[in-house]
Every structure is written in C-alpha cells, then in structure tokens.
Amino acid sequence: MNAPRQTAGPTPYESLGGESAVRALVDRFYDLMDLEPAYAGIRKLHPPTLDDSRDKLFWFLSGWLGGPPLFAQKKGHPMLRARHLPYAIGIDERDQWLKCMSQAMEEEGVDPELQRALAKAFFGTADWMRNRPEK
Prior knowledge:
Blueprint: H1 12-16, H2 19-35, H3 40-43, H4 51-64, H5 70-75, H6 80-84, H7 91-107, H8 112-129
Helix pairs in contact: 2-4, 2-7, 7-8
C-alpha cells in the first residue's frame, strides 16, 4: 500500500492538479472501465452503477497522493486488502486495473514522469491486493 514517494517539492496530489484533477482521473478511469471491453474483468467486480466506487477511489487517492485524507475522514482506515478480499483478484484483474489507470492517466494528460512514478506505486498496491495466485 505504498504511496508514491514524497520528495522535496509538491505532493503527487499537487502535481496532478489537486482535487479537480484527481476527480477527473478517477472519473476517466471508471468511464474507461465501462467503455473498454479490455477491462470487462474488473468491471464485473463492481456494482451496476459506479457512483459509490468513484467516490471511494477518489477519497482514497486524495489521501494516498498526499492530499486531504478524505477516505479516513469518511470511512476510517482504508484497510484496502481486507475491503477487497470478497472479490477474486488475480494477475489478470491486477493487470486490467493497472492498464485502465495507465490509460486514464495518459488521456488526462498526466506528466509522463509523474505517470511513471504513479504506475510504479500503483503496481505495488495492486499486486498486494491479489488474493488468488493464478490468472
């Protein structure tokens, strides 16, 4: 669950552009999940409407990226792995999630250097979420 490494200077939250940019990234991520057949595996793990999922990911990313800890304020400790245990998450689901987020970052115009740093941090978190070893 390692967040992007903080160095001197702006947080990843600030580098992305703050609240509106993080919200736009999350919205594009879930829009792509709905639109792209390549992400059908992770889409089926979500409820029919994605409004609640959008809010939870936005709240989580806000704090994880160095902004306001919205998830903790609203729901308590994120406990990501525990909250995702009911869902079968393997390598395919991990990779779909990462590709969907990568596409969302690209389409939202996230700086390439920041994309690389976030992709590395997202991989660590997404891989940690796996609860089945096979595809």
